[in-house]
Amino acid sequence: MSDGLQVADVVVRYAGAAAAAVDGVDLAVPTGEVLALLGPSGCGKSSLLRAVAGLEPLTGGDVAWDGVSVAEVPVHRRGFGLLFQDGQLFAHRDVAGNVAYGLPAAVRRDRAARTTRVAELLDLVGLPGTERRDVATLSGGERQRVALARALAPRPRLLLLDEPLSALDRALRERLALDLRDVLVATGTTALFVTHDQDEAFAVADRVAVMDSGRLLQVAPPAALWARPASRRVAQFLGYEAFVDVPATGAVVPAAVRALVDAVGAAGVAPVPTGGVLALVAGAFVVDPTTTPAPPPADRNPAHLLGVEAVSRVPVGGVVGGGGERGAARGDVSGVVRAVRSRRGRTEVVVDVDGVGTVSALAPAGWTCVPGARVALQVDAAAVAGLPG
Ligand SMILES: Nc1ncnc2c1ncn2[C@@H]1O[C@H](COP(=O)(O)OP(=O)(O)OP(=O)(O)O)[C@@H](O)[C@H]1O
Q1: Which residue ranges does the record assign to the ABC transporter domain (predicted)?
Q2: Given the CA of residue 50, which atom of ligand 1 is nearest to it?
Q3: What is the pTM of this model?
Q4: Residue 204 and residue 184: Cα distance in Å, rounded?
């Protein structure tokens, strides 16, 4: 018998809907595991979570805990906790009153035990000493921390979290995602966590289940999911931005494609079978900082229009990476720059690469050049995944 949560062939279909919101999902969350359900808006994540909670009737399939079906068990008797986007705190209770509401009745009635347990829970979520605060005075992040403390108070055997951080701004979300993981791990809580944000899923979960159109596409630990997406759809959803067919051995292909296949094969990061596909994420190409960009043809060089001095001294039509043996040896992969942008402290260069398409290459901080220039590129095999054909 398996322990923890088992979801077997679950179907959720809303009245009048043409397609099922959840369409035959099988999933297991063993005790102590945090599993993230990740997928685009409308893919059925919340419907599945609500079906597990008992808030949505099953059209088909079964939900079980430790091998025993809970399909007929009402929501409040399943022993599952719930935390939503808006923690739904009670406005008329202070912080301690909100947290204490989640405690088992016996603890709630014992004043000393209640005080101790509320203090423990507030410590756990990083809000020690806030017992007497009016919840109306809390920030959005603090409110969600209190809601988490309240949800953990009864020690639920499963905690169901539906986009608990999505109302917060990005910086706060990133920090709270890490804190949330720490709290779930420290308390050994089994959890099912719904999110549409890849970074959040990867930060919080032991395994990530990717959903699309009501179905599960892949379930894997974050690193494995990232390195080996099961399909192009999964890879696209994770943020892979370009896809290259692996050519037959000996086929004549653009230098960039050959460099990709060689680099990935050498790194042993991903299988590169003929007929397979290489998926590239931002950074699969890196601007070679030792070479000088070749400027765009004079009539298309925006630097001329702007009266800016060209960033390169390589003659128009010159060999990219020229000026020495080093450039000649590794300057055979190149691309035409479309834009240069700074993103989270990194320089990203949108570049058209022959045979590959438009990708986001990385460059050293502060590096820049005019659009239209041709730059030499190197391959970073760690940003390339192999997909089955
Ligand atoms: N109560 C409902 N009645 C009818 N259709 C619904 C209901 N709730 C959800 N749906 C539909 O079911 C599908 C799945 O919705 P669901 O909310 O589960 O997706 P989701 O992945 O959680 O999306 P989001 O991230 O936007 O919340 C959608 O097409 C949605 O319109």
Answers
A1: 5-238
A2: 18
A3: 0.85
A4: 9
